[in-house]
Amino acid sequence: MKKNKHSKIYKAIGKNLKRRRLELDLTQEKLADKIPKMDRSKISDMENGKEDFVFSKLLDLCDALDLTVLDALKEEEDQKG
User: Which InterPro entries match (predicted)?
Assistant: First the structure.
């Protein structure tokens, strides 16, 4: 993903997705197996803020991780307070 004005939020989303995946003790591969048309490399790109993804993919990941979209969108400052 090219550096753009949204890169900060993509990185925050990725960090939240990865944190939740690790809490559930899931590998990227196991998580990808739970989501149709999703592979490990796409999850890796999303977790690293490199993937400019469509909203439905975020919804699919949130469903698989039992994570609310609002929690996925939280930036680090919000999580500290």
Answer: Cro/C1-type_HTH, Lambda_DNA-bd_dom_sf
